[in-house]
Amino acid sequence: MSIAAQPAQDDESARNQSDVQLMPTFDADTTEINAFEVEDADLYIFSQYFDQEKVFDELREWYDSEQYRFEVPTDEMDRIESFLAEYFYDLNRVAPDAIEPFCVVKQKYTDHADILRNSVYHTSRGSNTVFVMQDRLSAEQAVEQGATPLADSDTEFQL
Known about the structure:
Layout: H1 5-19, E1 31-38, E2 43-46, H2 53-59, E3 63-64, E4 69-73, H3 77-86, E5 89-94, E6 103-107, H4 113-117, E7 119-125, E8 128-133, H5 136-144, E9 148-149
Parallel strand pairs: 1-5
Antiparallel strand pairs: 1-2, 2-4, 3-4, 6-8, 6-9, 7-8
């Protein structure tokens, strides 16, 4: 190969490399949704506001408008999880024995509107109300608002 031909090959290589377009990469932020398994009910419950109508429409049949939560049969969860992943939601299934960090207790008949707003489930136990919160941050905020972590209370609860 002659020395004069060398620069021509370099020019051609440069042209070929410039024709290659790399796909942009990005990390999409996902929203985590905690779905709580209801023991002995073959059901998961979760609360989430979906601002995309298509997402809500897909899940509408499982929405309980009185409780402001979704109640999804266990046998539908794989499909729901795949569907939500397409819209950048990460569904985290919480087993009944792992629910304690999400639970807080507050004395009945005390102000709890802000706690209720971020809960998935609530029920009375003696003189207290037990709340299952959407996530751990909501549980921490509930404690800041006067609730007690379930683990630090005398109240027994199982979803």
